[in-house]
Amino acid sequence: MGQPSTVPARDGAETTSPTSSEGSPAVSVRELTKSYGDVVAVDGVSFDVEAGTVVGLLGPNGAGKTTLIKSMLGLVVPTSGTARVDGIDVHTDPTAAYGRVGAMLEGARNVYWRLSVRENLEFFAGLAGHRPTEVRERHDRLLDQFGLAEKADVAVNDLSRGMKQKVALACTLSRDVRVAFLDEPTLGLDVESSMDLRRELRRLTEQEEMTVVLSSHDMDVVEDVCDRVVVVNEGSVVADDTVRNLVDLFRSKRYRFTLDSLPSRATRERLSSTYDVATDEWETVGDTVEFETALSDGERLHALLGDLLAAGCAVHDVTSVDPDLEDAFLRLTEREV
Ligand SMILES: Nc1ncnc2c1ncn2[C@@H]1O[C@H](COP(=O)(O)OP(=O)(O)OP(=O)(O)O)[C@@H](O)[C@H]1O
């Protein structure tokens, strides 16, 4: 299968450019390129993020996600192209842009473990020029929402890992930010803490119209909280669509065959070269043998069935394998599923 180019909207309609309250997308990246010497980390990337949505930025290691996030935060100067937050160019007007964004780049490593939870909130709000009294109400609300009220005066060092991560997210929100950039927000969290954090992200976007751009290698998290996913590979966008559409893109294209016995080596080699059935795909399950392969259309499915029958293989069952976001991601970035 060839590498797909940017995935268009499913119905072929133009994707509308959603807007924030000020008439611009919450985040807008245009033809952004960043090179480090000969290495092109980000290569002509464009996308918009609608206000009040969660967009996942996915890609294999080294794809360019961090460079992209840092460019959107004004921490990296692009070689060319622009990044805007609420219509403000983050490189030509960094002060105005900074007032609207929060970032959690290295999770709990960014917060001060010797300070109490509340002191951390006050410190991060103070960096943006807010006095503790001005933001007290906001901080009380955050502490309540994150289940941290009872720990407000406890040093971060004495909290569980999940709580530390929540403190880091609360610090990102310690002042009124409209867009939050979160790099691996659930990294290292147990299932319950990860669920809590996901719930909080959904609430922030649904009830407070906050916009979130997150990067994660955890597809469950992405599938759970993201409205849309931008997949980056080797510095370029290879897909930009809803989770559902990306999963649907590969639906019914992967099949699992169950045979009564292992075909001869010659047949297996032929299937490997003609239908891309990996030689290590054959799996014995009870009295049967199974393999999986991706087929582009019904004709290929028929041809493979015909070849199996001609080779004397008794086909017991053929089922289509339901893909998930992980399958879609691996296929989009040309990795083995
Ligand atoms: N400061 C830098 N100097 C030189 N090369 C860099 C620098 N930062 C990133 N790169 C290179 O740019 C490319 C993209 O890196 P980046 O960190 O943006 O990828 P990533 O998708 O965030 O990866 P990961 O998932 O591993 O964090 C890589 O080839 C990386 O080696």
Describe this structure in words.
The chain has eleven helices and 14 strands. The strands form three sheets. Strands 6-7-8-3-9-10 form a six-stranded mixed β-sheet, sandwiched between helices. The two termini are 13 Å apart. Helix content is 34%, strand content 25%. β7, α6 and β8 form a beta-alpha-beta unit. α3 packs across α4 (132-145) and α8 (243-249) crosses α11. It has 337 residues and is α/β, with parallel strands linked by helices. Residues 1-21 have low confidence and may be disordered. It has helices spanning 65-72, 94-98, 117-127, 132-145, 161-172, 191-208, 219-225, 243-249, 265-275, 298-310, 325-332, and strands at 27-36, 39-49, 54-58, 80-85, 88-89, 101-104, 179-183, 211-215, 228-233, 236-242, 254-259, 283-285, 288-294, 315-320. Among the domains are: 27-100 and 178-248, P-loop containing nucleotide triphosphate hydrolases (Rossmann fold); 252-321, ACT-like. Chain A, domain 2 (Alpha-Beta Plaits, 2-Layer Sandwich). Adenosine-5'-triphosphate (ATP) is lined by residues 36, 39, 41, 59, 61-67. Residues 1-28 are annotated as: Disordered. One of its GO terms (molecular function) is ATP binding. Residues 27-259 form the ABC transporter domain. This is ABC-2 type transport system ATP-binding protein. Pfam families: ABC_tran (PF00005).
